[in-house]
Amino acid sequence: MAEIHSTSKQDSKSSHSGKRQALISLSDKKDLTLLGNGLQELGFTIVSTGGTASALENCGVSVTKVEELTHFPEILDGRVKTLHPNIHGGILARRDRAHHTEALENHGIGTFDVVVVNLYPFYDTVSSSAGVSFEDGVEKIDIGGSAMIRAAAKNRKDVLVVVDSNDYPALLEYLRGVHNDPQFPRSLARKAFQHVASYDSAVSEWLWKQNYFIPGLTVNLSRKSEVRYGENAHQKAAFYADKSLAEVNAGGIATAIQHHGKADAAWNCVCDFSKPTCVVVKHTNPCGAASRNDIVEAYCLAVKADPVSAFGGIVAFNVELDEVLAKDIREFRSPTDGETRMFYEIVVAPKYTEKGLEVLRGKSKTLRILEATKNSKGKLSLRQVGGGWLVKKPMILHRTISSSMPSLRRLRKKMSSMMLSLHGLV
């Protein structure tokens, strides 16, 4: 076993000179110049590893290499470089405890005031369309980075931990005293633990790949946007995208592009039809659905099924929305009085023509126009129930409907009814 050497007290004094220290180790080096120069201007001694240290030096930033503190080289192809008491002692030591400070002095360990780390790109590697071998995937599992992030986040009263380059400006402002929000260190720590948790959930999911009902399931959600309200007008709500590996390029309403909520029920249903189809839903309740070769005709029939409920609802199409259809949506009058223009909260389609989009944008300032990719088949379904979640395999729609041979028209009608019922719309 290799011996771990600690630095002497004299080494510590000469290395640190009482200056504040920042530890930086990054895979994603976005805005590294901003961060490095900003910390250097504030008088920080910057300690860094491998490629990050080289990148900082190329930016003109003075760097102390990690091995200068540990007196130990990187080993095992870089698997071990920061897992050392001279690093973790400086991160985890509590400044308000005399015996912690005494221990650091006895072993010649300097403290870190800022830790900036992001992790190996495991998620991007294993979700790449090019594919990845098991061994290559394993090598992208970060160990030292996760340990430093967790250590710094645990010691949030004394250490500022940053995992997102978008937080660099706020960090520098805080250190300059531009703002003195007492909750800022805690907010960074929360974000850090969430970052590591999401990372670990991706690793676990990947290792359990091809297994449906695994012993433990972590649902990795990331807030995408706040919405005006939830399923009811009085409910506050936010929309979260599923960051699970199974959802990569899987389509669905969460991946929709908002051009100008709760469109999921209508979108899931309309995606199951092969013919041009329109589905109208309000508060996840069905208002109408119709399939025709002419999508404008399908739209009119779907609205006429229950125009009162359709007013203020969600309209979903499974074909490109062009100028002709957009004009009909914009000008269509309610069948109840023949005068009132139909109002919708959301329109969702797989694609829009430029003219179609232009016409729809002029319908209402509050209309949300979503462009979504069709859902992939075979995904697990999760449904929240009291005290837990129901996890279901995907429903397979078999083509055998009757032992007798029905007419083609009746067969199509049966199939449509079954697809609607699968989504709870009948």
Structural class comes to alpha/beta
Termini separation: 68 Å
Quickly count the helices: 17
Q: Helix content range of the residues, please?
A: 25-40%
Principal-axes geometry comes out as elongated
Average pLDDT metric: 77
Beta-strand segment tally: 15
- Radius of gyration (Å): 28 Å
Q: Report the uncertain regions.
A: 1-17, 248-261, 397-406
The biggest sheet, with number of strands, parallel, antiparallel or mixed sense and barrel status, is: 6 strands, mixed
Approximately what portion of the residues adopt beta-strand conformation? 15-25%
- The order of strands across the largest sheet is 8-13-12-11-9-10
Protein name: MGS-like domain-containing protein
Keywords: Hydrolase, Multifunctional enzyme, Purine biosynthesis, Transferase
GO molecular function, one term: hydrolase activity
GO biological process, one term: purine nucleotide biosynthetic process
Structure characterization notes:
The chain has 426 residues and is α/β, with parallel strands linked by helices. It has 17 helices and 15 strands. It has helices at residues 9-16, 32-41, 50-58, 66-70, 85-92, 98-107, 122-126, 134-139, 144-154, 168-176, 184-207, 264-270, 295-304, 307-310, 323-331, 354-361, 408-422; strands at 21-25, 45-48, 64-65, 114-117, 160-162, 221-227, 237-242, 252-258, 277-282, 285-291, 313-317, 344-349, 368-373, 381-385, 388-392. The strands form four sheets. It has a six-stranded mixed beta sheet, sandwiched between helices. A five-stranded parallel beta sheet has the order 3-2-1-4-5, sandwiched between helices. The longest helix has 24 residues, at 184-207.
